[in-house]
Amino acid sequence: MSNTTAPCHAGPPSSPGSTRPASADLGPLGRLGVWVTDHAKLVTVVWLLTIAGLGAFAPQVEHNLSGAGWQAEGSESVEARELAREHFGGNASSAIQVVVRSTEGPVTEGEGKDVLAEVTAVLEAEPRIAEVVAPTPGATLSQDGDTAIVLAGAGADTNEMVRVATDLKAELQELSTDAVEVNPTGSSLLWSDFNEANLDAMLKSELMSWPVTLAILVLAFGALVAAGLPLLLTLAGLVASAGSLVLINELVPVSIWAMNFAMMFALALGIDYALFVVVRYRAARAARAGSGRTDVAGKQRAIAQTMDTAGKAVLLSGLTVLISLSAVMLVPSPSFRSMAGGIMLSVLFVLAATLTLLPLVLFKLDDRINKLALPWSRSGEHRSPRFAAWGERLWKRPLVWGLASLVVLLALAAPIAGLTTAMPSIKVLPEDASARVGYDRVQESFGDGAPGTLQLVMNDADAAAATEVLKNDDGIAAALPPMPAADDSGLVMVQAVPTVDPSDPQLGETVDRLRADLPASALVGGAPVENLDLKTQLDESTPLVIGVVLVLGFLLLLVALQAPLISLLGTLASLLSTAAAFGVARLVFQEGYGADLLGFESQGFLDAWAPVFFFAMIFAIAMDYTVFLLASAKEHYERTGDPKEAMVGSLAHSGRVIFAAGAVMVAVFFTFALSGPIPPKEMGVVLGVAVLLDAFLVRLVLLPVLLRLTGNAAWYTPAWLKRILPTITFAHD
């Protein structure tokens, strides 16, 4: 059996007296590693300038990025909103509604009247507010006179209106007195409050995850200095991606979720990649020390060997992640595209740091990487005896272990059959959030459907017919008289109050009926309709995204491994952990199991954006581990031609890394499940369960069993395919 930790044989020096390995004997990444060490000052300066330059913008990320953009581009509801904003004084779904409620008599008299005047003054002083509409009897003034709504028209786009809400909500709430309560609400306030709650959750999650992450890294590396290297990559990727997102936001709106997901992926993948590279370098360094080669050329050979093996796997893993996430761009929604773009940006920076900055740091630290080592540390150990023994156990009894893991995965995936999805309800906000309090006050005073008032924009000639349709529809509680446009556009708006809460499934049926029965010029909009249109778009896009992700993932594995069978099995195996994660998500978030433990109120469904977006994220992470395991297996198969050595050797050399990286990811993701609104909890539970199952059942049990059962056939490549595919090898002599 060839020992993969043997010192790199790079052939004779490129010229007499040269201290560098001959570049002709190195792969592209090996040559990159040598180039980085030869141009250390240049690489250092470039990274310092990148981090310093982009880091100057990074602190602005939470303020500049928005929470809006959750819309179906080109939909009827978005068209209705833009017409309402342009022709009706900003009376669109993004308008701000300030709910003023008096506990001592009519709100339009006495102290309530004074507060209403102060609210109006604050709104009129804001240049981004269009028309301010006073409470109107029969519309925005309750029948008992205790509750009034002051409407602040949207004078800017949806992203800017979220910032307006953030800037004004504290000042408006401070106008409250002992007898009068002021609570701004509406979709812009919802996003503002959600961003605030989400930021608090992220900060809490970071405080919880970093100590756990560091502890796992110390255990994995056995030395404090080595354990700190993944954090170096993470910080570099985070700072660079945060600053980049702020700059990109100047050109196109970027959702705050882009930064949230970018932060998670920078941490998770930075640790994954650093683990894989550092473990390989320490083994190469130990072998170099044993051979007596401790000079510069010897260090460069260790770097070259590391980059030609682990570096190649990292590059392919990064490309797989990028390809998986790029499929989300097929969803024509600004928020989804910016979120996927934010993650891809962080992956690019982490990948660049792994392939350039990390080799340089390893070259400079050399044996100092093992400083502050723990007593049990064996820094030069690349082949893990425990995981080698685990591989032998799987080889002897593949069916027992394979069937056991398959049964567990299928049992957890079974509940997915009853999974239902819908757009987030007001329950995603804390109970004391201004938008939620105002929402509740509107429902109490104006009816269940009042917070989700529909806005119908149409030609003036169709107003009478539309009003008749609304009057005869059982899903409509009341309709206001047609309101003419403020200009000569010939448009009118009719506002209709549904009979049900905006998150009630019956609202979708009502909207479908109205769109079928209303005159052709009528456009049905409003915040709840925008949610319904987005859900429809997500439902239509999900099969396409899943199909594209699977096909692209398979093709990349095929190019990397040159083996159709194991590439196909590796791709399909990722579906098991994904299905199981969503099965668990149904039990937790739809059925409410564990809701008290996690501290949330079940909405009775999973948020509609979860399947398409989380699938891409889970698949990206799963393929990350797949590349690590199968690249190691391919390396051993190339050296020996023995399928047993390929299977056992891959576990022995990459099992510990997959185990440690999976543990870190699970810890990071589950911390998000312990704090904040429901969406971060969904993200934490779904991704945490998926990584837990994928790393420990699929990659360390089921996939090795598949290698055992398929034997040499796993690595067979037809002659015609060999002629098509580029030559990629993982063995480094």
Written account of the structure:
The longest helix has 35 residues, at 187-221. A hairpin with a 6-residue loop joins β8 and β9. The protein is an alpha+beta fold and 733 residues long. Helix content is 63%, strand content 7%. This is MMPL family transporter. Keywords: Cell membrane, Membrane, Transmembrane, Transmembrane helix. Residues 232-364, 566-709 form the SSD domain.
What characteristic shape results from the CA principal axes? elongated
Helix count? 23
Give the rounded overall mean pLDDT. 86
* Percentage of residues in helical conformation: 55-70%
SSE topology:
Elements: H1 28-38, H2 40-55, H3 61-64, H4 76-87, E1 96-102, H5 110-124, E2 129-133, E3 147-154, H6 158-173, E4 180-185, H7 187-221, H8 224-249, H9 256-290, H10 296-326, H11 334-365, H12 385-396, H13 398-413, E5 421-422, H14 434-446, E6 454-459, H15 463-472, E7 476-479, E8 483-484, E9 491-498, H16 506-517, E10 523-525, H17 527-561, H18 564-590, H19 595-598, E11 606-607, H20 610-640, H21 643-672, H22 678-710, H23 719-724
Parallel strand pairs: 5-11
Antiparallel strand pairs: 1-3, 1-4, 2-3, 6-9, 6-10, 7-9, 8-9
Helix pairs in contact: 1-10, 1-11, 2-8, 2-11, 6-7, 7-8, 7-9, 7-21, 8-9, 8-11, 9-10, 9-11, 9-21, 10-11, 10-17, 10-20, 12-21, 13-18, 13-22, 17-18, 17-20, 18-20, 18-22, 20-21, 20-22, 21-22
